[in-house]
Structure formats: C-alpha cells, structure tokens
Write a structure and sequence with these properties.
This protein is of the alpha/beta class and 443 residues long. The chain has eleven helices and 20 strands. It has a ten-stranded mixed beta sheet, sandwiched between helices.
Length: 443
C-alpha cells in the first residue's frame, strides 16, 4: 500500500515524526513539494534530527529516499544536510535520489526573497508574507517563467551552465538592484564554478526519479509520500496570498513525482491537537494572551527552520475538515496531545460565524475574508495528568479519550495515531491503517 503523509493545518504538525514512524512499512520515501522552507523533526533515542530537504525516512538506511521533481533544491543546503547526517553516522549514499528535473534554488533567489520581504514590510502597513527567506517563491517563479531557471540535471553540464548564467546574472543583478540590494553585480563565472563543484558532489544522487518510482510501482514496492508545508499553505487551496509557492496538499503528488494519484491508497492527515501558524496571515482561533503563551511554552512552539515563535491557538476543526477533504485523508494522526495536559477546559472550533450572522461549517480559503469569520467554539473538560508515558488508549485520561472521539465525530475520520511526545516511541497506534477502496486512490 502506498501512503501519503500530509499536514492539515499551517505546517509543523509533526509530519517528520510520522514519516519516520511509517518508514518501516515502506521502501521509498518521497518528497514532492517545497524546499528548505520545511523543517521536519525526528527524535529517536534522545537524538534530534532536523531535516529540511532530505526525506524523514533517511534514518532507516535500507530505505530509498527520493527528492522529487516538484521540490526546489538548494544544493548548498542539501550538501550541508548530507554532511551533518554523515557526521552523525547516518548513511547517505545510494539511498538518496534527487530528481534531475527538480529546479535549483540559487543564492540570488534567497536574496530576492529577503529583499522583497523587506520592501513589503517597510512603508505603510506590513504587506510581507513572513516567508522563511529560503528563496522558495523566487525559485518557483523562475520555474514558471521558464527562461531563467536551472534544474538539478543542469549542474552536471558545465558548458550549459556557463552558457546560461551570463544572461541570468545580468537580469538578476538589475532586479536585486531595483529591490534596494546594495551588493556588487552577480558574477556568472564564480557562480558557474560553485554550481559545477556542487554538481560534482551531488552527481551520484541526481537521476530520473520518475522512472525509479515507476519501477518501484511495477515491483509493488510500497512508497511513502512526505508532504512538506501543509494544506492551508497550498498555493491553490490555502489562505492565499499567505501561503507558500507549491501544491503542498496531496494534489501536489502527481505533478511533483510523476506518479498518478490513483496509486496513493492511504492518506494520513497530520494535525496538532491545537493549531499553530508561523508568518503572517489569518488564523481564526489564534490566542494572543496567556493561553497562546502556555501552548507555545508547553509545546516548544518555535520554528524548526527559522526559530521564530509560532502563533498558537485552539484546534480549528473547520480548517482540518476542509484540508482533509482537499487531501482525501483516510485517517488522522493527532499530534502533541501531551501539550494540552493541565488546561481546565479545551475549546474546539466547529463552525464560523460571519458578519451577517450566518453560521457556516465551511472554511474560507481567502486571506481577506477569513479574518471576518468568528470561531464558534465547543468547550470540553480538560485533564490534569501528564500523558507523555501513555502507550495505549487505556493509558489516557477519560477527558483525553473524549477529546479524540469528538475530533473523530466532527471530522468523520478515524484517528489512526495519537502522539504524546516527540520520541518515536511516544506514539499510540489507535486504529489499523485505513485505506481507500482498492479501485480508488487519489484520482
Ligand atoms: P513538521 O514540520 O510537520 O515535521 O513538524 P516540526 O518538526 O516542524 O514541528 C513539530 C515539533 O513537535 C517538533 O519539535 C517535534 O519534535 C515535536 N513533536 C512531534 N510530536 C510531538 C508530540 O506528540 N508531543 C510533543 N510534545 N512534541 C512533539
Ligand atoms: P513544514 O514542512 C510552517 C510558511 C512561512 C510563511 C509562508 C511562506 O516544516 O511544516 P515560504 O518560505 O514558503 O515562501 O513562506 O509559509 N511556511 C511554513 N510554516 N511550516 C512549514 O513547513 C512552512 N513552510 C512555509 O512561515 O508564512
Ligand atoms: Mg516544520
């Protein structure tokens, strides 16, 4: 069975932990979208690994990790990540494939990202998105523009690179200048040299991953697709424009890997037991006072990639239900349940009230209309016990079980996994895997 793991909120739901866990049941672990804006944490035996570009299956050396064509790859970051894993005795060799068609994040993409954010944040009102400054938007924009983009396969062809980078550097220099970047003109020769050198190092990994994945399908070797970012940050279905630049929902899988959606039979939607968001954009259930601070401190809600404090609030089930619909979720994994210990009461948002007084259970994927929605909450009793040692449903206090059951009732989906701590083994397998009927799959 092929599985997708996808975030149903605004990111950082704990996808890395679940991908690591489900790696045991699969042979290939495949990233299909995003880039080094992702920060996926895996904690095993007290050791913490933060992965940005490399799939979270990399800790299992007998599995093959694939960076698909839909990912934008910063080669310098990738090399850094490979090196830091090897320094900790994690094997990175034939077990890592990188698509020759994945587009490259260049140094000037990162500069452009940061400069544009700076310009948008200055002046009247803050119009910035609060990006991770990893060059994601500019790199995907280049892919869509076509004429100025470089792909990973191009790093293996020095003559081609040299022939392209002259004009690219000229145009980019002018653009950066217009954005107020005070730097010497980009030097095509030194950029070519550095890319060729990185291409030499990454060469053994760069390949046609589409055929590799279809060979895996033919041999019935199970594939796990690892979503980066999350459904509410999806460029088409998220809270535009406060989103990232890729299809992070499962709808990105076919385009980002070359594998038709019908091959994905199981979609595990990852959700926190509450909600967080990093960067700008609407967040109906955000708690700006003591409750938000308490969740942030208990959940250690600081960004894996940027270290920024995450905005925190109650669980928004209108949003989760919408994401589950877009992603075709077949089950849920409810993360960080332990963070909610100690609250007298917990709130669940089940609907939105609109300015005209109507109440809707439909999400509003529009950043300018969503702030008008007032969350309608259901209140449930909390629990005081710490639950980090729970291994079974029966170990959970009744109020925690009721909380999970209420989420299942409102979303109409089984909670397959509940997580009570960052460690691989702080995990409750509550239900058997749920798959679509064998004829279905994501179409
Ligand atoms: P991802 O981007 O979706 O992979 O999530 P991140 O790694 O950015 O953020 C999730 C954070 O929560 C990481 O620090 C994880 O180690 C941690 N985490 C995951 N599951 C749990 C859990 O059940 N309880 C607690 N307390 N922390 C968790
Ligand atoms: P993981 O995979 C949380 C957010 C950024 C910003 C917006 C656009 O760890 O869940 P970008 O740099 O992509 O142009 O930023 O999207 N964002 C994330 N927030 N987790 C992520 O990834 C994110 N990836 C992007 O904070 O608001
Ligand atoms: Mg993260």
């Amino acid at each position: 069975m092929n599985t997708a793991v996808v975030g149903l909120q605004w990111g950082d739901e704990g996808k890395g932990k679940i991908v690591d866990l489900l790696t045991a049941e699969h042979d290939f672990i495949v990233r299909y979208n995003g880039g080094a804006n992702a920060g996926h944490t895996v904690v095993v035996g007290g050791e913490t690994y933060a992965l940005h570009l490399i799939p979270s299956g990399i800790l299992s050396s007998e599995k093959t990790c694939v960076i698909g064509n839909g990912v934008v790859v910063d080669p310098a970051q990738l090399l850094k990540e490979i090196e830091s894993l090897r320094a900790r005795n994690i094997t990175v060799g034939d077990n890592l494939m990188v698509s020759n068609r994945a587009h490259v994040v260049m140094p000037y993409h990162k500069e452009h990202d940061a400069a544009l954010e700076r310009v948008l944040a200055s002046g009247s009102g803050n119009n910035s998105i609060g990006t991770t400054k990893r060059g994601i938007g500019p790199a995907y924009a280049d892919k869509i523009h076509r004429s100025l983009s470089i792909r990973m396969g191009d790093l293996l062809d020095p003559d081609y690179l040299a022939s392209r980078l002259g004009v690219i550097c000229d145009i980019r220099t002018r653009e950066l200048d217009a954005l107020g970047v005070d730097a010497p003109p980009l030097d095509a020769a030194s950029l070519t040299e550095s890319l060729v050198s990185m291409g030499r190092e990454l060469g053994p990994h760069i390949t046609d991953t589409v055929y590799a994945l279809h060979d895996a399908l033919t041999q019935e070797r199970p594939i796990l697709f690892e979503g980066a970012n999350a459904c509410l940050l999806d460029i088409d279905h998220g809270t535009f424009p406060y989103v990232t630049s890729s299809n992070c929902s499962t709808l990105g899988i076919p385009a980002g890997t070359g594998v038709p959606g019908r091959h994905v039979q199981r979609v595990v939607g990852i959700m926190k037991a509450y909600t967080t968001r990093v960067g700008e954009g609407p967040f109906p259930t955000e708690e700006l006072g003591e409750t938000g601070d308490r969740i942030r401190e208990r959940g250690n809600e600081y960004g894996t990639t940027t270290g920024r404090p995450r905005r925190c609030g109650w669980l928004d089930l209108v949003a989760v239900r919408y994401s589950a619909m877009i992603c075709g979720a077949t089950s849920l994994s409810c993360m960080l349940l332990d963070v909610l210990s100690g609250f007298d009461e917990l709130k669940l948002c089940t609907a939105y009230e609109l300015p005209d007084g109507t109440v809707t259970d439909r999400f509003i994927p529009d950043a300018y209309r969503l702030p008008q929605a007032k969350p309608v909450f259901e209140t449930m009793p909390g629990w005081s016990e710490e639950i980090v040692g729970a291994t079974d449903r029966e170990d959970l206090p009744m109020a925690a079980r009721d909380y999970l059951e209420r989420i299942e009732a409102i979303t109409g989906l089984p909670i397959e996994i509940a997580s009570v701590g960052p460690e691989r083994n702080q995990t409750l397998r509550l239900q058997p895997p749920t798959a679509m009927p064998s004829t279905a799959g994501l179409t």
